Structure formats: C-alpha cells, structure tokens
Amino acid sequence: MAETLGSLCDKLTIVKLKQWHSDHPERLESLAGQETQLKEEIDTFLTDAFSGRISVDRLTFAANKVYRKEGNAVPEIAGSIGAVFSHLAEVNCKLWHEVDKGYEIEKVPVDEQSGIIKQLAVLNLERTRCIDQIDRELQTAVGQAAGRPGGA
After folding, report:
1. Is residue 36 part of a domain?
2. How far is 99 from 116, CA to CA, in rounded Å?
3. Is 151 inside any structural domain?
4. What distance lies between CA 32 and its chain's CA centroid?
5. Model confidence pLDDT, tens digit, residues 17-59
C-alpha cells in the first residue's frame, strides 16, 4: 500500500493504543521510537505535499473496499483533517476493544459472537472511510494552496 497521510495517521493511532495498553519497558521504548518516526514521516509528508514534491494525484490511495452495503450501515465521514483524524482514533479504540473480545471468543455467549464479528467488519469499513477522507481533505487543501479551483 502506498503511504498517505491517512495511512500514517492510522498507524500513529495504533501505536498510541499499544502504548496505552502496554507496561513492558522494552516494548514501550520500541513504541516510542515508532511514534517519533511516524510523527517525522507525517511532518515530512505534509511538507512534501505542500511543496509539490508529491503530486496532488498521489495524495490519495482509495481503499475501494468491496462489501455488501445492504445491512452494513457505515456513516459518511466528513470534516477537517483534524476532525477526521480524531474520528479515526475513536474508531481504532473501538476496534481495539472488539478485537480484544475476539481473543477469548469462547467466553462470549454464542448469541453475542456474531454481533462482535459484525461490529469488527463495520468498524473496519468506518476506519477505511476515515483514512480515505483524510487523504481527500489533504488533496483538496494542497490543491487550493497551489491555486487550483476547488482543490485537486
């Protein structure tokens, strides 16, 4: 997968979740290094995007998820990059906790197991929409900064 701002933001939220849920000193040290690297990559990516070193058409890499839309309601994602990044972090927190339930699925009542699986699928679709929306918002902002009407 090509790196985009959305994919880098997604990785950073996951590193932050791992930091929050870990108390192992060596793991925390490794995660701190990953956090630093990702923040630097985000800063460099934004600098390169606004300076024109990354062409506007390469700022997005749509997931193009193929799924049955009927019965799988996924909210539309809109807002500024910061708002969508915040939404992405929230979705990744929810995903983390749903995945955690799956590690001990045998302890979940059978009639609730399919709900966990469904929630995982829908949250993953929402996560992908957030990543794609961050990329589209950046593409619009870079296009506008470059003087293109309507952004990209």
Report:
1. yes
2. 8
3. no
4. 19
5. 999 999 999 999 999 999 999 999 999 999 999 999 999 999 9
